[in-house]
Amino acid sequence: MIEEILPDSVVAVEAYGHDEPEHTTLYPEEAALVAPAVPKRRREFTVVRACARRAMEKLGVPPQPVLPGERGAPRWPAGLTGSMTHCDGYCAAALVRAADLASLGIDAEPHGPLPEGVLESVSLPGERVRLRELAGTYPAVHWDRLLFSAKESVYKAWFPLTGKWLDFTEADIEILVDPARPSGGTLRAELLVPGPLVGGERRGVLEGRWTVRGGLVATSMTVPHA
């Protein structure tokens, strides 16, 4: 699912339900980090790293630990950048050579409505107006959940380039629907704070894609070098 919303240069590996990718054993330093967690958290931590190591292999990089850095962002092997996501019944990792993309972010969520009150805290008034318009035309999609996922993907692409926090209300996201396939489309995120510098150019807009399939919503944001 996730690979259909990513550029061809990105390698994505995913696991559904109780699927166990290869290399599900944690490295000692990873195991120590997650040892106090509840079983569900330990399993997701393990499986999403198994996905990441499989993606490394596909890029010709020896599998190695994926440890959290600042604010929990994964620290990738030299020469790679990427993103991971997990929710109930689904884990995925996406990796790319740093020469091919400056940054990327992915997120997956259950395709259901957000809990009451959450949308108001994570969205802008203009975004809520656009969501109501989308819901009137395409009622089968939970647009509030899609917007939340897109904001998560924006942050995951933003943070490795800036090392700074980005609030939900500091990116104004427009969701565009593919008329030929209303369960997918593109995303445009206008940053309301100074954007990251990439190759000496400040990026004020990030772009991505989205899809809804199999009870999940998935989003991606990619930042090209030029």
Mean pLDDT over the residues: 94
Write out the strand line-up for the largest beta sheet, numbering strands in chain order: 4-10-9-6-5
Shape: globular
SSE order, one letter for each helix or strand: EHHEEEHHHEEEEEE
Helix content: 25-40%
> Over the alpha carbons, how many angstroms does the gyration radius reach?
17 Å
Sheet bearing the most strands, described? 5 strands, antiparallel
What does it look like?
By secondary structure, the protein is α+β, with helices and mostly antiparallel strands. It is 29% helix and 31% strand. The protein contains five helices and ten strands, in the order E-H-H-E-E-E-H-H-H-E-E-E-E-E-E. A five-stranded antiparallel β-sheet has the order 4-10-9-6-5. The chain has a three-stranded antiparallel β-sheet with strand order 1-3-2, covered by helices on one side. 42% of the residues are buried.
Give the SSE map.
Blueprint: E1 11-16, H1 28-34, H2 39-58, E2 80-87, E3 90-97, E4 103-110, H3 118-122, H4 125-137, H5 143-162, E5 171-178, E6 181-191, E7 197-198, E8 201-202, E9 205-213, E10 216-223
Antiparallel strand pairs: 1-3, 2-3, 4-10, 5-6, 6-9, 7-8, 9-10
